[in-house]
Structure formats: structure tokens, C-alpha cells
Amino acid sequence: MSIHRSIGPILVLIFIVQFSQFRAQTTITLGEQDFPGDDFSIEAPYSFNQTSLRSQTLVLASELQAQGLTQGEIVSIGFQVFELVTNGTLQDFRILMGESDNDFGFQFEGGLTEVLAPAPYTPTSDWNTHVFDTPYMWDGESDIIIETCYQNDGPGGQETSIWYSFFGVDSYKESDHLSGNPACDDPFAEDLYFSRPRLQLTWQAPMVPPVAAIDINSIGVCSGLISLSDASTFNPDSWLWYFGDGSTSTEQDPSYTYSESGTYTLSLVVTNAFGTDSIALEDAITISLADISPVAADCTPMTQDQELGFGPISVSLNGTTVNSSNGTAGYEDLTCTVFEVEQGIEYTFEVVVDGPSQNHVAAWIDYNADGSFAESEKILSEVSSGVSMVPLTVSNDALTDSILRMRVISDFYLLGEPGPCTDPEGGQADDYSLRIIPNVSPPEASFTVDPDFSCDGTVQFYDASSNVATGWLWQFGDGNFSNVQDPIHTYENSGTYTVSLTAQNDFGTDDTVMTDIVTVDLDQQLTPACEVNTLNHCCGYGILNVQFEGIDNSSANGEEGYQDFSCSQEATVTEGMSYPIIMTLGQDNPHDTHIYIDLDDDGQFSSGELVFSALNTNNVNTTLTIPDNAPLVETRLRMRIIGDYLGNANPGCTDVEFGQAEDYAIIIQPDTTPPVADFSASPTLSCDGQVNFTNLSTSATEYLWYFGDSNTSTDAEPTHTYLTEGSFTVSLVASNDYGVDSVAYENLITVDFDGVCDTITMPADGIAEVLTDCNGFLADDGGPYEPYENNTSGSQTITVEEGNYIRLEFFDFFFQFNNDFLLIYDGPDESAPLIGQFTGNTLPNGGIVESTGNSITLRQITNFFGQFDGFLLEWTCLPVGLTELDPAGFKLYPNPTDGPLEIRSSNGDPLQELSIFDNIGRLIAREGRPAPYMDLSYLPPGNYLVEIVTAQGVARQRLIIR
User: Fold this and answer.
1) Residue-wise pLDDT tens digits, 444-486
2) Looking at residues 268-278, what average pLDDT do you find?
3) Residue 850 and residue 827: Cα distance in Å, rounded?
């Protein structure tokens, strides 16, 4: 298509000058007198209380168009003064204008054109009209910015109050200065307002000839009807259209119907008082009038917004492709192009869509030629970002040798599936013709099976024969047969079956055999379970893929609802073990995902059978731990996976809202691994003899504890009370059907009854008295054996002699995670640096926390709910600068002792100092350069701490004197 343009005669200059004297001007007012501005509301373009002020006002093109303005010159702007408080002159007052292409924000718009040069200006009451030095040429379509600015030597008075009008969106911004650099150079505004000054604009038509332009709104290729719009600029007042077939029109926006097929050149001549212009669009119109048209449709959908750009741009079927515009045409009747297909043959139907985002595309064929499109006549419906392709086999009962209407619609995908009679928001509907040719070939027999592996014996067979079969004979391989086109057959015995189909029509017969196509295993059936339906699927929710120990299954999302894959998808696991599981969920929104196992095989899923949850994720890639001691092993059980929207608890037998439930089979094997014995104890230093033992053994079913005081227990996790003081070796024997294992911890438990009252507890509130002993035990406010209280906030400081630092050794720690805390500060109060804020059930800093100086402060904070075990620690003071040595490098012998004591060093280092502390941290004895042998029989029986100093550092060990 080529364009030819000619400029009409130009009026002589004298005429233009004379005409300009009579050129009509239009003055419009924008906004009402809603409120007057002042110093405390909005700084005005005339503000004598500032040395400089820059303002920008937004005017929408739609406002000017609503008052009848078109492309032309704006020659003046006025602001309406409410009250002139200060009489004075603004220096260097100027006005600039330009188009607004950006959001109206705090940044001043650049690239504006000066229409009023800087000059002194003295505001007056009421309207102040500024006649431009150079008129501003408005294109008739763009929003505009009006900028004012002035610069004074200094503030000269009060704000000049002008009228403002409410606008509802950001439309006025300003920046003002009392001194310094002029505001005219500011890149950003200080204030942004929903209101703007009341304005008057004067407009006049430009003294230039028009420039011709054409918009082709729609071309009815098959009907011959075209719709045109004048897109010329500079205000033409007469039009002459040439349609290329000898016909003309003087309307501004004509519609015209061609009576013959062909390609036509479209021309337009436009005129105003200053001249004429013309444009020719060569070969712009192609018409192909249909000889035979399909039955008229009951409806013709029209695009609501042709600027959005959604819609189909081509349709292909059986070697023919027809192109169309997207939503810019509004609707296209392309029924003069006839697609031809043969009955009973499978074709690929392809639609290509366009748009700034994904389309939802749908298509229908009016098979019965009644002018409407039934749901059963829909051949395509899917979300697409480009090409959609689906198989198409024409229905056997469709009309043949007739022209049928085929409709394709696509629109923005979030609007849902378009209906055949729904006006698209920004997409388009196109109509085509389809001729169905009768098939006179004999059938080619073919079929499919679903499922090909059945646990209940029920199998669905689908005829896939081509060439319009009209009769069928199925033989299912078990002596049964059927003449139904798509039969459902139930096998009564397990086995593998060969199936055959004979298809026939008036032109011949064909058969096909599929060997061993069906396998039935009735022993694989699971206990029937409650079925979970999807109530309102939307938004892409659902389960797309599951991979887990023999299961690797892909499926559609929740649109297909509940799916039972338990017959063909099976996992085999071992009780108590953990296995990787990967699940892919709908990607549009995060899911909450839950997994249940029907452990007792009763067909229900109780809360106790919930074995896994993953919240707020689209993809799961983690491990699933199989319950230990499962009630049923080596039995096929039902495993249910549910994925739904966030916050849905999804009980195992409750319908799903948006997502989906899928069932699989799982076999839990018994754990034949021999046990591995292990345990822990708390506390290991007891003041009342009571100790709790935690079983850490794996794969064990029976236990035998030896507490070291001639007592035993067969409980899994016993609590034992020692009746005598001393150190005790504890052992555990763990067993199952496959083996025995044992573990023993020498001198694990130390019992000292004298220390029971000396374990200090944190205050529930306030600040406790400072502790000054070098050694002691500290617990939460509940003590060593009871949980802490709620709503506590107590502080405890430990301060020892100068030259020492403090070591905290934690034996137990369990605080409600991220709700209750223990805070530790490196100093005498909470203004000191925070060493750490600890919560949960992990020992702080691995169990050891140290100060840098001779003070350390702890604060316990708990909330209003949830009581947990808290903490138990021992503190000791250590000389600054000494290295902490491994206690295993020294041996106190015998221990316990009746008095005689030998101190042995593994590396032979001589002892420089030995200190003995009682169980509350008091220094009992200290000796420089002690002998390796000593007699401590003078000390009373009890639990002591021995501190050994060598040239290498310091070590500490517990000593019991009987």
C-alpha cells in the first residue's frame, strides 16, 4: 500500500493576515470556586511570602475535549485571585507548557516550552490573564503541563490567595524557597496536591491548512461493509471521500458497502479556511463477497475497547490459513473464506492470538446450522500466549455439504472463558465458514483404553476409528463382547487380556487387535475411602506432579477434581525412615499441602494420620518421615495428598475449595534394622536425686535401663530418683526383633543433696540481688524441674572478683520458640553489649557462654501463654588470660574419695595452683604449687569443684568427698 499526498492552494499572505483579525477564539474555565488557598494550605503561583516558587499544574486532554476544543493554539492562561493581601510585583514571572507523558508525581516534568518570557508581573484581583508571547500548539490528544515560576530578591509579604478546585487526583505541585538557589531549578516538588488552581484557557484554531489522515475502523471482507474515520489534523471543515469504485461521500466518518469483490484505493480530500490536503491509501481495501454464506448468527459480539490489542490474528485448518486483525477491528466477518474438512478425519485446528498478556481463546462450530453455538459445539477453550492447537474430528451427525458458521473469540485470560455471544473486553470475535464433505471411505479401526491397569476390573474403551464408523463389535478377551461405540466393561477375574474391535460403515469393514492391552489385578484394590471433591476450582490451584519412592505421576490441575491413582501408583517405604518427596503444584498461587496415610486401613483419614504439611509454597522438595511402629505393615494403604489455598486446614475427608486431592498407594515395610542405643539425661547434676532420661535410640522396641544404684526400668523414657549421693554410671540396653545394642555413660549423674537449696532461680519480675560467688547453679523461675511461669520479666546479674571472667555452661534449655527468650548481656546491667537473645530448644552458643569482664547479666522474658522447661546452667569464674584446658587431660584419683587424692596430668605439666570450691561457689581452699598428693579428709562430705592451674591454662573437674 502506498500513500500519495498533495497540498492544496495556499492563501496569499495578505488574506491570512486579514483573516487572523477575525479568527474566533474560545475561552474556557476549568474548575469551580471550591476553596481559597493561603499560607497554611497551598502555596499559590503568586506568593509574596517566598523569594521564589515553581509550580506545575496538570490539565487532562479529556477536559479540553469535553469543552469542544480540538487541535489548536492555546494563547493565554488565567488564574483567579480570591484576595490580594499584598500589593507588589513578582520578578521574572514566566510560564512554560508541554505534554505530560509520565505519572504526575513529585519530580517536575522537563522538556517544557517557554510561552511567556520572564518579566515583572503585578497580580490584581479576580482573573489575571497572561497572554502568551508564543502560542502553545496543542495536538488535541495529549495531557498538558502548565508551569509558573518567579524569582524575587526576598519575601515581600503574605500569600496571594487564589481560588482552587478539587480534582480528585494529584494535579498540582510546587516548590518554594525563602532564600538560596531559585526554586525554578528544583528537580523535585516539596508538596503534591489533589486540588489545583482554577484556570481559564483561551484557544484558537491554527492558521494552517489541514493534514489529511484516515483511520479504517473495520473492513467486512465478506460483507463489503467498511467503516472509516477522519484522522486529519488542524481542523478541516469539509471532506470528500473516494472509495475507489466511483462512489464518494462528504461525511466526516462514513460507512460504505461495496457491491463487488476487488481491491480498492481509498482517498480523502480535506479542506479548511487556510487550504486543502489529500491522502490516498493504495490497495487499502480488499473485498471478497461470499457466494454462499452460513446461516446468520443469533449474535455478533463487538469489542468494547479496541485499543487493548487482544484477539486472534490467524486461524488454520486443513492447509488453509486466514489472517485477521486483533481487537482493533472490533469484529471480523470472514465467512467468505471456506474451510473444508472431511467427515470422520482428525485434523489439527490452530489459532494464533496476540496481546500484551495471555489470551483465553475459545472456538465453536454451528454443526446444526441453527444460528447459535451450544456448549456441545465448542471445539477449543484454553489459555494461550501464542499458538493453540487441538485435534478436530468432525461429528458424525453434523450437516454435510452445507456452509456452517465457525466462531473464534479470544480476550484477556483473567476475564475467564469468553462466551460465544459475549462482547470481548479488549479481544475480538471472528466468524469463518466451514464445509463438511461426506466421507465415503471404509473405516480404519482404532481404539484407546482407560485405564490399562485396573484394580477393580472396570475399564473404559473409546472408539478412535476414522472415516465415520457406524457399527462396532468389541471382544474383551474374557468371552464377553459389546456393540456400543464407547463401552465400559468390568472384568471379573485378575489377568491380562487381548481386546479387538471391528468397525464398519456403508463402505466397508476394518478390525484391529491390541494384544495384552488390559491388566486386571483385583488383589490390588484398596479399602474404599471418602471421596474429596473440588468445590470451586480457580486460579490454577492443584497438584501437577508427585515423585515419591516409586511414584512418579503427572496430572492436570484441580480443574479435573479428585483423582484416584492408588491402583497404578505405589510407594514402598520402611517405618520410621525418611524419604525425599517432590511435588509440583499450580504455579499461579502458593498452596498449603497436606499428606495423610490411612494407617489403620479404615477408609477414613483422622487428624492422627496427618503425616506431612508444607505451607505457602508452589513446589515441595523435602523429606517425608514414615510413622514408627505403624499398626499395619506389608499392607497396601491409601495415601492422600491435598493441595489448596493458604489457610485451609484440609481435613482428610473434607471437600477442597479451590485445589485438589489425589490418592496413591503406599506399603509400609517393618523396620528390620537392629537398634542403636543412645540416651541423654537431665539434669546430670541433681540436688534432689530426680533425673529425667530421654531415649535417643533408633529402631528399638524394648528397653532396659541400669541407673547405677542397683535399680532398673523398662520404660522408654523413665524418670528416676536417686536416694543416695554420689556419681552414677548409667547404661541402656535397647532391643527389637532384629538385634540388641547397649550404651553406658560413666559417672554421668552426680547427686548432691546439699545443693538442692543452693540452685538459684531467676526472679519472675524485677532485678534480683547480685550474685558474687565464683561458682553456682542458676535456673529459670520454675527451678531445675518445673516449667517457667508466663508473663515474666526478671533480671539476674553475676559479678565476681576483678581479674576474672564468667563462664556459663548450660545443661538444659527449652523456651517457646520466638515467643519466650533468655537475653544475656556482657556486663553488670542491660546497658552492656548484648551477647545473644536465645529461644527454642538449642543450647545457647553450643552450651557455653562467656563474658569478657567480671560481670554478666541475664534477663528471662516470657509471654502470656505456653510454659516450657526453661534452663539450667552452672557458672564459674576463670582468671582472665588463662586458656581453658580439656578436663580429660587431668585425673582426680580416686573419685569419689574418703580424703586421699592424687592429681595426675596426662602431659606431666607441674601444678601451679589448686583451688577447691563448694557446691555454691564459695572458695574453700587454695594452694600455690600444690603437691600431686593431698589429704582432703578435713572437708565435709559433699560435691566440690576442683580448679587446676598449670603454665598451659586452667581446667576444672568435679570431686565427690564421701
Assistant:
1) 999 999 989 898 899 999 999 988 899 999 999 999 999 999 9
2) 94
3) 11
Grid look-up 481559597 returns 36
Supply φ then ψ for residue 19, to 5 degrees. Answer: -65, -35
Q: How far apart are CA 220 and CA 279, in angstroms?
A: 22
Q: Which of 48-57, 413-422, 616-625 has the lowest mean pLDDT?
A: 48-57
Q: CATH number of 679-751: 2.60.40.10, 3.60.120.10, 3.40.50.720, 2.40.400.10?
A: 2.60.40.10
**Which three cell numbers mark 646?**
493458604
What does each C-alpha distance from 799 to 594, 695, 854, 876 come to in angstroms?
52, 38, 6, 11
Q: How many CB atoms lie within 10 A of CB 895?
A: 16
Sign of the four-CA dihedral 590, 592, 598, 603 = negative
Question: Would you say how long the chain is, in residues?
Answer: 962
Q: Which amino acid is at 212?
A: A
Question: Where would I find the beta strands (DSSP E) of 220-345?
Answer: 225-230, 238-242, 248-249, 255-257, 262-272, 275-287, 311-317, 320-323, 331-342
| Beta strand segments in 396-521, E | 403-412, 428-437, 447-450, 453-454, 458-463, 471-475, 481-482, 488-490, 495-505, 508-520
Q: Are 99 and 161 in contact (CB under 8 A)?
A: no
Distance between CA atoms of residues 203 and 607, nearest Å: 76
**Given the C-alpha cell 516409586, which residue does it identify?**
550
Nearest CA to 500 out of 525, 472, 537, 527 is that of 472
Ranges of each domain in the chain:
1-23+207-289, 24-204, 311-437, 447-523, 534-669, 679-751, 754-879, 887-961
The fourth-level CATH superfamily of domain 447-523 is Immunoglobulins (2.60.40.10)
| Spatial separation of the C-alpha atoms in residues 583 and 659, rounded to whole Å | 14
Give the helix ranges, DSSP H, for 831-913: none
Q: In this structure, are residues 305 and 425 in contact, taking their beta carbons and an 8 Å threshold?
A: yes
Q: Give the three cell numbers for residue 264.
A: 480498492
Mean pLDDT of 670-676: 89
In degrees and rounded to multiples of 5, residue 175 shows phi and psi of -135, 130
Calculate the CA dihedral of residues 365, 370, 374, 377 and round it to 10 degrees.
Answer: -30
Farthest CA pair distance, the chain: 134
* Rounded Cα distance, 605 and 944, in Å: 57
The whole-angstrom separation of Cα 343 and Cα 470 is 12
Nearest to 302 by CA among 406, 415, 409, 414: 409
Q: How far apart are CA 528 and CA 602, in angstroms?
A: 8
Does the pLDDT at position 543 exceed 90?
Answer: yes
Contact 880, 803 (CB under 8 A): yes
Cell of 740: 540388641
Q: How many percent of the chain have pLDDT more than 70?
A: 95
Amino acid at 681: A
Q: Can you tell me the distance from the alpha carbon of 284 to that of 263, in angstroms, rounded to the nearest whole number? A: 7
Is 194 within 8 Å of 68 (Cβ atoms)? Answer: no
CATH topology (fold) of 534-669: Immunoglobulin-like (2.60.40)
pLDDT tens by residue, 632-649: 888 999 999 999 998 887
Hey, is 560 helix, strand or coil? Answer: helix
Find the mean pLDDT for residues 233-240.
91
Q: What is the pLDDT of residues 712-769, one digit of tens each?
A: 999 999 999 999 988 999 999 999 989 999 999 988 898 877 654 467 999 999 999 9
Residue 316: per-residue pLDDT: 96
887-961 domain in CATH 3.40.50.2300?
Answer: no
CA dist 46 and 42 (Å) reads 11
Residue spans of beta strands (DSSP E) within 756-814: 759-761, 765-767, 775-779, 793-799, 804-814
Burial of 115 (0-12, 13-18, 19+ CB in 10 A): buried
- The Cα–Cα gap between 162 and 206 comes to 31
Which residues are CB-neighbours of 846 under 8 A, at least 6 positions away?
Answer: none
Contacts of 376 (CB under 8 A, 6+ apart): none
